Amino acid sequence: METIAISGFKERFRIREKLIRIKANPKKVSLGYALGVFLGTTPFIGAKVFIALIMTSIFKWNKISSVIGVFHINILTAPLFYGFSFLVGKWILGTDVVFVFPDTLSFSAFYAAFLGNSMIFFSLLFGGIVLGVPMAAGAYWFSMLVLRRHGGTEAQRHSCPDIQSSGHPFISHPASLIPLPSPPVYTLITGASSGLGKEMAIECAEQGMNVILVALPGRNLDVLCELLEKEYGIIARYYEVDLSSRKTIIKLVEDLLKHYRINFLINNAGIGGTLPFDESTVDYLERIIQVNITAVSLLSRLLVSELLKHPESYILNVSSMAAFSPFPYKTIYPASKAFVSNFSRSLGQELKDTSVKVGVLHPGPILTNPDAIVRIIKQGANGRRGLLPARKLARIGITGVKKGKRVMIPGTGNIVNWLMMTKLPPFIVMPTLSRVIVKEIKKEKQVAA
After folding, report:
1. Contact present, 363 and 408 (Cβ < 8 Å)
2. Phi, psi of 235 (to 5 degrees)
3. Which of the chain's ends, N or C, has fewer CB atoms near its CB within 10 Å?
4. Are 16 and 68 in contact (CB under 8 A)?
5. What are the angstrom distances between the C-alpha of 127 and each of 42, 110, 133, 279?
6. Taken in order 253, 257, 259, 265, is the CA torsion positive or negative?
């Protein structure tokens, strides 16, 4: 507890130095500090620190910063703040109770003066709440401003450095040369440059999670990392890799495990398309299998040992509504997504007694890129059924797996689609899907002609 040691009046107000020395997530530090400031305005004499520690444990905010907040406000509480909050509370409650300052400066005397009359206590309580809320908001804003301006807390003062080439077939950040006693943990997100993967990165950052983003080269991951760090005060790193290469995946994980602690894996990267099977090239089919099946399997296998080291860790795999039925003219894609679904459920059962929770998300159509938007629009009502914003899907998946949900089918429209694809007989489902997709292919050929 050296961080909160107090030596004199001046030392107590070195807020900036105290906050930036804390080794924790800036948002959680700021929330803890704001809570401490708020509790400092309440009349719970002798119990404020205890209450702060309980509440920060529940909300998983920073305990040290909450205690700092309590002590900073307590300097003002007795001589100034309690008198003002008492008057405000009297006015709110409409009481004429009178507070008599004790003759002797002792804890028992103050306790009797504050709590000897219930209306005095309630006046102090209501006045403290009214004044404490804006003070806590100001404390949060101030602490976040300090931490962002100074690059986060000590454990997070490692901004996204310039990308450097290495001997590997991918480009990555060099690891920090400064050893950290308690290194931060990260969420690894594949396919993070756009669409659902990008929204998952934003959602994780908003929840105060450090992220490592993976996508193909030239997808502006450096810009996204910089924005996430500035906006949310988290650490954002990135790797530009092609997950269709088995050797690249293995070298990627080797580099990750050397430099980072990972407690959340989001396998979002995936590719697909609509094409008659006899017109598909071998490279096209193999790439779908490599990214949708091999990459998910290998990343999960190579990182599971690391995930098991954490008291709480997660794997979220992104499947598709296509996993619930064969799709003519898509062939390999729905089969690969069915694999992701079954793999996730099997792995979740296998790891159910460990610290690792495994979930699978089955999104329907997503407005991710121009090609997807055009395709969804052309499909009419069938394409729009189950359509949800990518950000909402990201929140459903991340929050769901944290709560222990193993299978997530988001939205009423997708549930209706699931019922139709799984409960209706195949001789009805398959021709219906075939007609929809054939119609889409014919329109695309007409446009191309």
Report:
1. no
2. -95, 130
3. C
4. no
5. 8, 18, 10, 74
6. positive
Confirm if 3 and 21 have CB atoms less than 8 A apart.
yes
Give the separation between CA 265 and CA 316, rounded to whole angstroms: 6
Q: List CB contacts of 70: < 8 A, sequence separation 6 or more.
A: 36, 37, 39, 40, 48, 49, 52
The whole-model pTM stands at 0.59
User: Which are the contacts of 35, defined by CB distance < 8 A and separation ≥ 6?
Assistant: 52, 55, 56, 59, 61, 66, 69, 136
Mean pLDDT along residues 412-429: 82
- CB-CB contact of 36 with 70 (8 Å): yes
Between 243 and 10, residue with greater pLDDT: 243
Short-list 125, 119, 128, CA closest to 76: 128
- In sequence order, the 6+-apart residues with CB closer than 8 A to the CB of 145 are none
Instruction: Examine the pLDDT at 244 and tell me if it is beyond 70.
Output: yes
DSSP string, 324-386: GS--TTTTHHHHHHHHHHHHHHHHHHHTTTSSEEEEEE-------SHHHHHHHHHTHHHHHTT
Would you state the structure tokens that stand for residue 212, as one six-digit string?
């490592």
Residue with tokens 């950290």: 180
Residue 217's CB is within 10 A of a number of other CB atoms, namely: 13
Q: What is the pLDDT of residues 266-278, one digit of tens each?
A: 999 999 878 888 8
Query: DSSP class of residue 263?
Result: E
Q: What is the DSSP letter of 174?
A: P
Query: In the chain, how many H helices and how many E strands?
Result: 19, 8
Please name each of the domains of the chain with its CATH number. 2-154 (no CATH), 172-448 (3.40.50.720)
Exposure string (b/e) for 329-364, b if CB count within 10 Å is 16 or more? bbbbbbbbbbbbbebbbebbeebeeeebbbbbbbbb
- Angle, helix 295-307 to helix 332-350, in steps of 10 degrees: 20
Cα separation, 242 vs 252, in Å, equals: 10
The answer to whether 407 and 213 are in contact (CB under 8 A) is: no
Strands 313-318 and 236-240: unpaired
Tell me which H or E stretch contains 262: strand 261-267
Tokens (6 digits) for 143: 């602490």
